[in-house]
């Protein structure tokens, strides 16, 4: 039986002046760029089967067909450009874009100055998952209480650091070769060297600073990604003071490590390090740990992931200066108050990991050659990921995706943006709905989210004059979770009770990262709660946590003004 | 939405509230304050809930609470919920700790209306704790010392006196002479859980930082205070500790203390030790003891005093090596005396045994033993020893050797004093009372000649014990 709490947060001044009608109207304005592209294609199909909408679809399809034909004839002409599309950077974003471009029949090249796979595959998501797989098992083996409850006996679990590190490294190599092979087999040219834009539709590549080969392309996508951001005053030696780049090599497991920053990266590494026997001290500039997460989820995460572990923390402080260990002295971390800048404390630890976020890697890209100025290093883009120049005008045929534009610094977001750009290039107006992109933190248990947090949703509701409600279900009520003896966790839904629109879903609990997609797909496709609640979930599975969540939402669709209007069927 | 706390007024009947109140706020009239302390109850979060588990206290004791603020997270049979207060005030005393379970409607904390009432509420919590099945351990200690003002100075030693803790802390490069406590996250958590004051814990980690096992060690020596009002070391008649019922063939998991002892013992293997023995004639000491026994002097105090006096002349034997790279000449001579009780082990410490006269030292020993019985030994009273004495003489043991406690330089095993036929240098044979002592020492810092010289001095002092009473 699910324990669910349903709250109505409808603002006092609820304007019910037929928001649904307005929405439908927007859906029919085919040129409206402000409307989320993915949703637009779906809405007319499923919400109203009117003759008008059918006509719309036909028109849309015809328009699309025309542009594809145009593209094809372009390709058929004597090559004006070396390539249809050049992608600078072969990370997950560039790879996703390249694959989709080939599917669309574009002649594509990808320029990579380092190794295929970028941050995600080589220094990020992928190897860290290998470490987290180990830490998850170590955690299970070490949890005597848990094992006992399951009737298991495990004698003194241990690990071999080098083998763990090798596992992470091997995984990265394997994924890297998979990516490389997939590009090669599809006929994407891999150009080795650092790419520099030398003019409109023109790129040079070669050794850093000496780009010697020039290629032209009709369209260029910048997908150069990011590097770990290291604040001033922090001296990185790669041994005792390091970033995630070094940490993933797992060259040693310090007894006591300070992690500066408690976002995804910091949190995941705290999971790895504590499972391997380290003690962790978090240094967080904001007043709360895990900023960016829904506050309620962050609170529960603190109770599950921080408090019972060998972790302490300092919040509201900056690490002003970090000196690596030398001459028998430990790593010194000077903390100052984030607001008053007064020194507060000095930490002495064995190692410090800097996880203060990531900075775009956009230097020496030749952006000045096309009059583009970066903003804090990020390449400014419009909603179609098309680059805007210093005067705010769109730069034709130049796009930027992924961490380099800073819209949403996630590997799969970069890939989605890349696909969106390719669609755009092929003449299909496409705007990616970033609110439908899920994010996950692979701690034990995992945390995942999609859409707005509760404070964000409240603000939006306040401004938009619509009510929001919150529903929650607990993993404690899920059969599968209890069978695994992992009942700790919460799923939270933020939605509009008037329309049934899902605004955000946040999950902490067993396999949360895998569970989120039902919600993110629903947001992407515009599925309403009143419909998705009839979807059937296998029993007993963890997915029933979301089933319960959707079912516990109270949608007042009966009083929806639009329903009272005559609708042709 | 959070549930609201159920709070109801109580009229406390305190043992002697007037005295306590008048001592901290003489001007106040004590009688009117009582009504301002409220009990916070375990709320019923669902219709089927009969008891709730405290997941976490959002606020700590002494925190100011505003109406509507979350105070505690309670886990019911269905979900975890934040519980709010609807009174302003101060969280005076937490009666059910995190992880504890309380039936719906039972008091889990006390809310004081003003800061002044906190002490009162605390004492109330402690007095009611005996009747409450879910009483918090915090409420166990007597209330007066938990007044909002800092505890009386005698319970917490001033930093410079708290050696060797302060000595080792000052060896820490960045601890600024013991001003700062450098402890790892887990050590801090453990200390909070086990209620150990980190200021008096000796750090043995890298650069002298306090690590979890130091905290465990500190509790191990303190948590095993005697349950029976007997101290084996004191009673002349040997009492072998007997457990009430032992199920043969059963596997018994270590208690926390046994685990810590085990850990300490294994750890002691990393220290290269050696042993030097000596036979000391005790006729003069026995006579002295007979003479001053009526004045309350104990043999333990005499031995501790003699040892301390010998240590003055051999500071290296009173030193300790923690990191294997340096060693500390401890500034005080603190004699720890091992006492076995109930299968446990405790080492009350006679601080500055060299400076305190034998009568005060004996009184101090009695006090320590009484405190140990009442489980009131403070950490500095059991974990600040610089040299340890272990005496199995009362069992008739004539010689044995001891394992060196990590963090100290030497331990002396004292055997029974027995009448022995001795040949003297002038060719005569006589009967003398003799005892064998055997010192185990850390050979990284203390060498054979050091121990030999120390034992020679000790023998001289014991064989000519006049100085002991000065």
Q: Which keywords apply here?
A:
heterodimer, A: 569 residues, alpha/beta, 8-stranded mixed beta sheet, 6-stranded antiparallel beta sheet, B: alpha+beta, 7-stranded mixed beta sheet, 5-stranded mixed beta sheet, 10 helices, 21 strands, elongated, disordered N terminus
Question: Could you explain how this protein is built, in words?
Answer:
The complex is a heterodimer of chains A (569) and B (470). Chain A has 18 helices and 24 strands. Chain A starts with a strand and ends in a 5-residue tail after the last helix. In chain A, α4 runs parallel beside α12 (411-425) and α6 (125-142) packs across α10. In chain A, strands 2, 3, 4, 5, 6, 7, 18 and 19 form an eight-stranded mixed sheet that branches. By secondary structure, chain A is an alpha/beta fold. Chain B is an alpha+beta fold and 470 residues long. The longest helix of chain B is centred in the last third of the chain and has 16 residues, at 358-373. The radius of gyration of chain B is 26 Å and the shape is elongated. The termini of chain B are far apart. The chains are: A alpha/beta (569), B alpha+beta (470). Chain A binds chain B through residues 3, 5, 7, 255-256, 279-281, 300, 303, 307, 310-312, 329-330, 332, 346, 348, 350, 472, 474, 476-477, and chain B through 1, 46, 55-56, 73, 78-80, 173-174, 180, 182, 184-186, 188-189, 205-207, 209, 211-212.
Number of beta strands of chain B: 21
- What is the arithmetic mean of pLDDT of chain A? 86
Radius of gyration of chain A: 25 Å
Derived from helix and strand composition plus strand pairing, the structural class of chain A reads alpha/beta
Derived structural class of chain B? alpha+beta
How is the quaternary structure best described?
heterodimer
Enumerate the spans of chain B where pLDDT stays under 50 for 5 or more consecutive residues.
Answer: 1-34, 129-175, 223-243
Shape of chain B: elongated
The low-confidence parts of chain A are 1-49, 65-78, 559-569
**Count of DSSP H/I helices of chain A:** 18
E-strand count of chain A: 24
Question: Averaging pLDDT over every residue of chain B, what do you get?
Answer: 74
- Alpha-carbon distance between the two ends of chain A: 39 Å
Strand content bin of chain A = 15-25%
Task: State Rg of chain B.
Answer: 26 Å
- Which chains make the largest contact? A-B, 24 and 23 residues
User: What is the overall silhouette of chain A?
Assistant: globular
Strand proportion of chain B, as a percent range, falls in 15-25%
Query: What summary fits the major beta sheet of chain A?
Result: 8 strands, mixed
Helix content of chain B: 25-40%
